[in-house]
Amino acid sequence: MADQPKDDQKTEVKPSAQQSNSAKTAAKDDKATKTTHKAAKKKSGKKGGKKISLKTPVFVIIVVVAVVAGCLFGAFVYPQLPLPGSASEIKGKTTVSEDQLDAALATYNYGGKTYSVTVKDCIEENSSLDSAKNDDGTYNMPSADTALSLARNQIMQKAAEDAGITVSDDDVDSYAQSTLGSSDYSSIASQYSMDQDKVKELMKDSCILKKLHDQVVTTTIPDQPTAPTQPASGQESTPTADYASYIINLAGDEWDSTNNTWASTDGPYYSALNSYTISNDSATYDAAEAAYYVAYSQYSQATQQAQQEWTNYANGLLTNANLTLNSLVA
């Protein structure tokens, strides 16, 4: 990541009671999200279950997740006559035939050039053509949101190309492994009813955007903290060496292990924990949980700052484009 701020430049926040409660709520929400995610993964892994369509944001996660909702193009044009090129073929339709797959669902201007987003492009973002085909041989019209999302990502890809960003096959495999837990594109394609080559293409695009993201965003995001292990009922106030180690590891330079006390009294951990009795080898679960809320608050704030930094960059590009949608199908 380019121009990373040094550790001593990180903003330290002294949490108020209200901030501490917000951090607790965020931590609980994060736990709930993880639980739901694990349950969903377990369910989708059952044999004979319904296949899940892998939406574009899962692959191209960098842009779609971070960009602010709403129209981000310099101009947004609703369908009008005459429609450009083959776009007239899909006017008023909710399904298309095979010979209409190359019709332009959207067109946009960027960098002095005009580009088309076809019906086929949008369908293949979520599934293979074969799996998307209806029994009568037609295809459901992709949503306007899909076309808009794809146009945004194409513009970001052009920005990455202009920045000279490239990735190797090994880079893409590593990225796939880290985000999806596998670089077996055949298995991934089969699981999500997509074309194998398209899956690899999407993973490559996402890997490129991740590299662009890492060049653009300078905010350092700390590792997401892990909550302390909960003790047996009624033992929350029983001090242990494990909880002391947990707190000291999070507090870092704020704790002076040599003198077995706080190194400073103006940091966020001291502010949150000064009422607890803590030593190098003794601390309670309650104290460890308070330290966790501080760490999670810092992680959350840094994440939001990084997202805003990326959003500002993306919006700066997207406002230089204008887009015409030739269908507003939901």
Structure report:
This protein starts with 16 loop residues before the first helix and ends in a 5-residue tail after the last strand. Helix 6 crosses helix 9. With 330 residues, the chain is an alpha+beta fold. The chain is built from 12 helices and 8 strands. Mean pLDDT is 79; it is low at 1-72 and 74-85. A 4-stranded mixed β-sheet has the order 1-8-3-4.
Describe what is shown at a glance.
This protein has helices at 17-44, 56-59, 61-66, 119-123, 129-132, 144-162, 169-180, 185-191, 196-216, 241-251, 268-273, 285-318; strands spanning 75-77, 95-96, 104-110, 113-118, 139-140, 255-256, 261-262, 322-325. With 330 residues, it is an alpha+beta fold.
Keywords:
330 residues, alpha+beta, 4-stranded mixed sheet, two-stranded antiparallel ribbon, 12 helices, disordered N terminus
Relative helix content: 40-55%
Gyration radius over CA: 25 Å
Please report the distance between the alpha carbons of the first and last residues.
38 Å
- Mean of residue pLDDT values: 79
- Which stretches of 5+ consecutive residues score pLDDT under 50? 1-72, 74-85
Helix/strand/pairing category:
alpha+beta
Q: What gross morphology would you assign?
A: elongated
- What share of residues are in beta strands? 5-15%
Order of helices and strands: HHHEEEEHHEHHHHHEEHHE
Main-sheet strand order equals 1-8-3-4
The beta-strand count equals 8
The main β sheet shows up as: 4 strands, mixed
Query: What is the overall number of helices?
Result: 12
